[in-house]
Amino acid sequence: MSEDQNRDLDAQFRDLVAGMETDLDAGGVPEDAAASQNPTTDDLDTPVDEALHLEGGKLSVALILAPIPSAEALHSLLALSGIHEAVVRLKPWTGVWLRVQTQTTQEDELNVLLTGRRAMPAEVDKVASVISRLSKYGAVAIMSWLVEGDGIEPGVSGQITAQRYVNGHSEDDIPAGLLLGAMPQATEDLLLGRTVPEDYPDSIQADGKGGKRGRFMWFRKR
After folding, report:
1. How far apart are CA 178 and CA 125, in angstroms?
2. Is the pTM of this model over 0.85?
């Protein structure tokens, strides 16, 4: 990829994040994002999808978005840092997919009620910090926190949160609903457990398998 193309992709990623931050500061929502925004994405304990069934009664999935157009390239760069996770192409960006085991305490839930924020788990924070150093515009971590009720409260409910990382450090939260409204449908499907990376032909699995050209082919001259 040429230097000009890299600059263009960085600029698109910058504009995506900057646009959401501007709308948040202004208290507004872009028309296109508002039309597609799921009203459940920022609310805790709100129905998400009646058709979903969560194995074990809960699910948390994280996607760390990077302004890098190649899943193979991102997977290989992370491998150099000792990180081996599945990577999915979410045009024009790429996302690292993590299934996270969460153990929330009563103190955690009280903190959410008081602050309206959920801290990213350590494994998500680690990967997002590394990815944020690959571009001057950083990375964005999105994570779902889903639970399945029964009895008088059947169905799946939960929350999706998003946070920006720059130069290895976490920054302000980003409104997840606006972010999802600007991303491909696959983003929401992955977060809600409707799909997994193996469902996408241009994804790379944690062990390096998958992708159209195989492991490390992005290093070769075309």
Report:
1. 21
2. no
